[in-house]
Amino acid sequence: MQDPLLNLAGYLLRRASSAALAELNARLAPLDLRHADVAMLMLAEAWPGLTQSAAGRVLGIQRANMVPFVEHLERRGLLRRRQVDRRSQALELTRSGRMLLKRARRVVSAHEAALLGRVPPGLRPVVVPVLTALWQGGALRDVQRRVRGPSAG
Fold first, then answer.
1. CA nearest neighbour of 91 among 81, 78, 101
2. Are residues 132 and 96 in the same domain?
């Protein structure tokens, strides 16, 4: 009996995503990090002064969930919040956050290499562009415009 779900791209994408994130989280566990923590630290490093709300939009985290998420990283001494105005807080990576992110990047790199190692060599160059095309649907450019402002291209 053939599984009818194995011909559905969306189903396979969800299963692949779930498996990849589970493996990455297992690799990050010795650092007491999860994939979302590392993503937040990477954003804070790449965009110094990024506001908490903008980071939430980029990561697809609802506003109500951002506060406890950022507080957890702040309590661990990995992030610092700085008041920008009455409603906005900028995120800054701490020294400890930079050091831990350096270790986490090595874990992520090893995970990415193992993940792409499962793909036939001839298909590897198209994996990221195909996944990006499936994900974007125009939404990525909209989020980037809102994060960087209307003058960003």
1. 81
2. no
